[in-house]
Fold these 3 entries.
Entry 1:
Amino acid sequence: THQPLMPTRAGWTAAVAGACFIVAGRVVGLIELFGMGAAALAALAVSLISVRRPLGRLSVARTVEPSEVECGDAARATVTVTNHSRFRTPWLRLWEPVGRDAGAPMRMAPLRTGAHGDATYRIPTDRRGVIELGPLRVERTDHFGLVTSGSFIGESHETLVFPRRCTIPFPRLESLGPIGQQLRLRSFATSGNEFHSQREYVPGDDVRTMDWNVPARTGKPFVRLHREVPVELTVTVTREE
């Protein structure tokens, strides 16, 4: 998206001062004042002509490192601008919107045909959520800083900032025996009983482990065998900000 030529604050000052000098020179009759006003307006006209020249075809690529960011970690974005036109680019001022209320100002030296330049800035990761980067605004100005022209190139990029993860030590029960094992498994919110196999019932087996569906088919009692599989659950704790 190309934006029209706009005088800067210095450009508006030069235009107003030039008009005032010309009027004062005509009223007072001083050729010096008239010359100063004409020079200011002439500089503004030259600036308009120089900035009016097309900037050329530029492309932008953006890289975020690391790709996954946790809240509070350092993250950087690298913007690569490539010149595809036949002319050398002037000095460029780059502005990368970062989120809703921030931005990264950068400057880029002239690029010859086919060359590219990189600019890097830090991404704020103090709050979790989605941070939208771009699109990149490219501004050019004249040598006097009187006129500026800008355009947006490339697309935007979204970076996801995850909540910070930390390891919380879970208490372990060191007691041995069936009671200690059962308490340890319950502390991890799981019984740890996994079906393993079946065998015929022998006197002394726990009646609660009998599989009552098998005698209905075979006429012989069978019991179900289980094995204990300790499973440690992963718990993620987040803090609301």
Entry 2:
Amino acid sequence: ALGTFLPLSVVAGRLLGGFLIDHFWAPAVSAIILTLPVVFCLAVRTAEPSFALLAFGNIALGLAAGVEYDLLAFLVSRYFGLKRYSAIYGFMYAIFAMGAGFGPYLYGRSFVATGGYETILGYALIIIPIAAWPLLLLGKYREYPPEDEAPETGR
């Protein structure tokens, strides 16, 4: 039953994230939601986690996982405009994908080296806020003249 919380919360994260960034300043929404995996790290590092604690941790992780790609796309459009959107988004997505690809490897290496996930989850507790909170420094959305918003047609 615990395994159903993560995929359902990923879907909920996509819906909730979209709603929130339509109504609130996206960097604040991003910083809050992307910090939620800290709850998961704390839950699984507990000596004897209860079902409720693990379920809550999985929900927190799923909400963040569900919204991260959408937030990236939205923030790129608001802070870089649309003129070179695909190139900028593609570059940032590639960096994001490398992190998503190397993450499981690093967690596995940590498990092999230490016999558990406690060490890597301890690092994650520090790194997650360090990665998420600088979004609060982005400032107001940028204003672009109409000609800078139009995608290039290649003519």
Entry 3:
Amino acid sequence: MLRVEARHRVGTLDLDVALEVAAGECLALAGPSGAGKTSVLRVVAGLLRPERGRVDANGQTWLDTGSGTDLPPEHRRAGYLFQEYALFPHLTAWQNVAYPMRGVPRTERRERALALLDRFGLEQLADARPRTLSGGERQRVALARVLAR
């Protein structure tokens, strides 16, 4: 279960959102440019702290501006795929995927990263740097990295 309530001024936009997604449901945010879709996702991920708001996920409160609760992004069990991928250019594809694997022994990170890359048909590009990958390949590496967390 995900419940989001947020009010925030973003540029000229007065964001005012309330949504609830039950476990197993899928929600699509649609609207014109500047409508606040990305801002809502950033609030959930902990990358944007609204002026007023609350985010509850699976029975845990991640954000409650009223009580001062604000769980940092790295402690939220949420993946966020940036529109521009945000891959580290100095790391290989497998290293980008392994990067968020905190708590996983270093000896297991490469194997797990390769398994994720294989799911997206990219295991043969594991040692490639992002600048050598096509846009679609970069997108799949970024998605594998989100799932690695």
